[in-house]
Write a structure and sequence with these properties.
- Helix 1 (15-26) crosses helix 9.
- The protein has helices at residues 15-26, 43-51, 65-74, 90-97, 110-125, 147-158, 172-179, 184-187, 192-222, and strands at residues 2-6, 33-37, 57-60, 79-83, 101-106, 130-137, 168-169.
- It has a single domain (2-217), classed as Rossmann fold.
- It contains 9 helices and 7 strands.
- It is globular.
- It is α/β, with parallel strands linked by helices and 223 residues long.
- Strand 6, helix 6 and strand 7 (168-169) form a beta-alpha-beta unit.
- It binds adenosine-5'-diphosphate (ADP) and magnesium ion.
- Adenosine-5'-diphosphate is lined by residues 11-17, 43, 86, 135-136, 168, 170-171, 174-175, 178.
Length: 223
Amino acid sequence: MNVLVFASRKGGSGKSTLAAHLATYIATPERKTLLIDSDPQGSLSFWHRIRGTENPALKHNPRDLAQTLKTAEKEGYQWVLIDTPPNKSPVVVEAIRHATLVIIPTRPSLFDIAAVQDTVAIARELRKPYAAVINGAPAKRHGEEAAIVADARGALNALKVPVWAGQITHRADFSMALAEGEGAEEFDPGSFAADELGRLWTAIDRSIKAVESYKGRGTRSAA
Ligand SMILES: Nc1ncnc2c1ncn2[C@@H]1O[C@H](COP(=O)(O)OP(=O)(O)O)[C@@H](O)[C@H]1O
Ligand SMILES: [Mg+2]
């Protein structure tokens, strides 16, 4: 079972948005998917009520995360996505403790990038793989990313923070889909929003496979 944790102490960076869109993208009958809304604000839970289906399933603010994850694994869940509150509370640390991969959404702005470092510090301390994802970016022009995105990427590289090579653009489709209780792919499968999400999913899936093979090597060399 793979656990993706969406974390950043900056509110509005896109944790809940990416968690909802990715969960709907991942959830198929072959890939049983659970969302855990660990933010007392409950944005994801609100979206899930509008959605009105159990695909993906959602649990709000579980008291005992470790137990909830154990049960999920027994129930055959393959993917768990945990949305966290915009702070550095014990809830965030506990979620990261259980992460296969920590995803740190960030807007391409100085203050957001400063906030990324706090989450990075927790992930590094707990020795968890993590990556920043640039969200809410201006659209590319003629295939070129905006200067502000290139600057953000440069700043993240200078901090030695791995950052996804793509971007999630600021698009009305992302918020309109959520208002309907949907993900971008369901809302409009041919859209740019759905395409970006598909690329993000491919990158995450690859990273997870790399983490697994790295762990596998570790086990073999220890044997
Ligand atoms: N790529 C995007 N395009 C358009 N709107 C976005 C995008 N990402 C986030 N938003 C909007 O920005 C607001 C904050 O995003 P949210 O996911 O709630 O942030 P967080 O969970 O990190 O606090 C929401 O209203 C959301 O719909
Ligand atoms: Mg949120």
